[in-house]
Amino acid sequence: MGEDMDVIKVEEGEMLEIEIEEDLLKANEQLANANRKIFDKHGVKVIDVMGSIGSGKTSILEKLVGKLKEKYRIAVIAGDVTTTIDADRIKRHGVRTIQINTGNECHLDALMIRRAIKRLNLDELDIVFIENVGNLICPADFPLGSHRRIVVVSVTEGPYMIRKHPMIIKGADIVVINKIDLAEAMEVDVNQLIKDAKEINPKAEVVCTNAKSGEGIDNLIKALQL
Ligand SMILES: Nc1nc2c(ncn2[C@@H]2O[C@H](COP(=O)(O)OP(=O)(O)O)[C@@H](O)[C@H]2O)c(=O)[nH]1
Ligand SMILES: [Mg+2]
């Protein structure tokens, strides 16, 4: 697996490493704004998908790509510390896929995305999905230049995932509550998760999904205005 995958390996010292964190965040934001301008110039809509490992990001992307690939020209950039597992899964759906291996970094940054988009012909694309590195802490501080940010939380992570991650929920345009098919077994109250999300971020749209069956994916497509 991963042999013919297009992989960017981020070497040490190549990341946006600036001594003072504030400068780092500022530098990232400037690059993110520049990325956004590039996307807009080429008419590409970019969607950043965040969430813990195992929450269902790749499964949701597979379903989205499956439903949208006839209508739109799609590429997927998958971020992961070391593997190409996600990009391999998505590539099977026949869309252009790039893996970014971040090495020690627990999030993608705007420079990594800049490097990845250099490998894409943006004029021949309508949508770029980005699967961020799997956790709900680090990606919150690093905008990539995307138009929409999705946070995926699954019921198997227990009842407190949303309340315990207010920063990333605040920055989300859409909160997806996934694996609703397992809510009963997990004794997790989906309505309470929805309430938690709305309380932290009243502007975010909340969508419930079962990425295995595809339930709710059309609502997510609607929320994304695609
Ligand atoms: N039952 C159930 N399993 C799911 C659902 N979404 C994802 N999974 C499973 O959860 C595991 C992790 O999903 P994955 O998409 O790899 O999560 P990621 O790490 O966030 O990309 C896989 O075994 C999926 O088949 C769901 O809605 N319901
Ligand atoms: Mg994944």
Give the helix/strand layout:
Layout: E1 6-9, H1 21-41, E2 45-51, H2 57-68, E3 74-80, H3 85-91, E4 96-101, H4 110-118, E5 127-131, E6 148-154, H5 166-170, E7 174-178, H6 183-186, H7 190-200, E8 205-208, H8 217-223
Bound molecules: guanosine-5'-diphosphate and magnesium ion.
Overview of this protein structure:
This protein has helices at about 20-40, 55-70, 85-90, 110-120, 165-170, 185, 190-200, 215-225, and strands spanning about 5-10, 45-50, 75-80, 95-100, 125-130, 150-155, 175-180, 205-210. The chain is an alpha/beta fold. It has one domain (about 5-225): P-loop containing nucleotide triphosphate hydrolases (Rossmann fold, 3-Layer(aba) Sandwich). Helix 3 (about 85-90) links the parallel strand 3 (about 75-80) and strand 4 (about 95-100). Helix 1 (about 20-40) runs parallel beside helix 4 (about 110-120). The model has no long low-confidence stretch (mean pLDDT about 95).
Features:
226 residues, alpha/beta, Rossmann fold, eight-stranded parallel beta sheet, globular, binds guanosine-5'-diphosphate, binds magnesium ion
